Amino acid sequence: MIAAPPKPESKRIEPQAGPQLEAFKSQADILIYGGQAGGGKSWFLVHEPLRRVHNAGFRGGIFRRTYPQLKGQGGVWDECQEMYRALGARMREGQELDATFPSGANISFLHLQHEKTKYEYQGHQFCYLGFDELTHFTETQFFYMLSRNRSTCGIRPYVRATCNPEPGWLADFLAWWIDDKTGLAIPERSGVLRYFIRDAEEKLHWADTKEELLELFPDYKADDILSVTFISASLDDNPALTKKDPGYRARLLSLSKIERDRLLGGNWRVAEGSKIDESWIRYYHIKDNCFEFSFQRRLYQMPFAVTRRIATIDTAGTSKEIAAQKRGKKPSWSVCQIWDICQRWAIAHDNRQVILSEFMFLQYVWRKQVDWGLLKVEINETLGTWNVQKAYVENAHFGAALVSEIRSCQSELIGPVLPGMGDHGEGAKLERAIASGMLSRFEQGKIFIPYLDAENEYWLRPLLSEFRGWTGDPEDEADQIDTTSYATYVSKISTGTWGGPIPAKKVR
């Protein structure tokens, strides 16, 4: 009698000790996982919901930005195959990708290729929302999809997302977990829960407990407040990968320095091809009605009285931008920047006369995506609150109309084409940055912003993110870059030095 062959041992699948296991245990409503390449992100995203698939009413949605990214080798669809099939899931692959488990639970694999694609999910509900490479999605897509994060299956809806580091809205959202000086994740904050509320002014308010927020916003209930955490994971936290592919680290080390710093070093602040070097960004304090700042290794105190307050405004909403939005491009922001500018100041310093010229101090940024009715009201309020002497409005779709509405100060239209610009096509923002002298002014150390604190971080972090991440590409978010270019343009002493050649390779 021939003995029957032994049955193969069942394979136990479980998260690896360290960040991956910590992520599985987290009770956060929204958990962002990763921050470096090779941290086991895709594995985590597709395996995390398997604890729920015994529930017949459970519905999950795992998103990539585009459909081809879903099916790419090593992507989430590829990653889920073995384990989902082992659990008896019926895998459907065609125009729709999903897995239906024996209980009736379902996990779909979906995309948000265009900005407007998010509206295709109106009426849908997902108990589990997963985002693979969240930095590829827009901020408005992410927060809109949170409205689809709901369920009646008895499981509290939750969100899990993975990411590699990249300057942008997600870096701003996770600012508490990231060191502002180094751009690296703060180890002791990994996995710590925080809570947020978005107020009527679109400002996010953060706290360590729900109770703190409820004191500030008594109209809210505890269930109205979401918890968030970020868990940092690196290649060293994924021994399963390094064992299977020991050459992966070497390939990461072969990348350019910026990509290496991001994908292997976990640096959220570096951007490939950034036009504004981090070292060019200068800061000021306010002391005794003066701007206190360092310039060329000397400390100065410039009185407010020698500066003039202006505003530069980009209304957004041009016909070209509106058409681009309909094609799926992310919407532009309306921006109003408040600047104190000093065109020339002579001062005795160290027993000699020093002349400081064309210095700019940013006081405040109003930045929203609003309709025309709210735009004209809030711009007027902002100009009045800051006692602006003169406002310069980009002559775009709403520019002329806004100038006629401004009551609190003098106003003037400023053209989209500045002296010195060449081909003002798709690369117009880059051309304006060069022609206005903005990039040169940054490099000279004459553009100053306030130090980051609790009062200004809601507007200053997005500004810093835009400055650090701007490459000049027409697809980059650059509305604040543009208003800074206009401020540089109008702060010049004369027009004699305007302009300069536009490198052809930098303009599309």
Short description:
The chain is 27% helix and 24% strand. The chain is an alpha/beta fold and 508 residues long.
How much helicity do the residues have?
25-40%
* Largest sheet: spatial strand order: 3-4-5-2-6-7-1-10-8-9
Shape: elongated
Terminal residue distance? 78 Å
The residue ranges in which pLDDT falls below 50 over 5 or more consecutive positions are 4-10, 495-508
Number of E strands:
19
Based on the structure given, which CATH architecture of the largest domain is correct? 3-Layer(aba) Sandwich
Count of the domains: 2
Strand content: 15-25%
Radius of gyration: 26 Å
| Structural class estimated from helices and strands | alpha/beta
Q: Report the CATH C-level class of the largest domain.
A: Alpha Beta
Count of alpha and pi helical runs: 17
Helix-strand layout with pairing:
Elements: H1 19-25, E1 30-34, H2 41-47, E2 59-64, H3 67-71, H4 76-86, E3 90-93, E4 97-100, E5 106-111, E6 128-131, H5 139-146, E7 158-163, H6 169-173, E8 194-198, E9 204-207, H7 210-216, E10 226-232, H8 239-244, H9 248-253, H10 257-263, E11 282-287, E12 290-295, E13 298-303, E14 308-314, H11 319-326, E15 334-349, E16 352-368, H12 372-385, E17 390-394, H13 399-405, E18 410-414, H14 428-435, H15 438-444, E19 447-450, H16 457-469, H17 479-490
Parallel strand pairs: 1-7, 1-10, 2-5, 2-6, 6-7, 11-19, 14-17, 16-19, 17-18
Antiparallel strand pairs: 3-4, 4-5, 8-9, 8-10, 11-12, 12-13, 14-15, 15-16
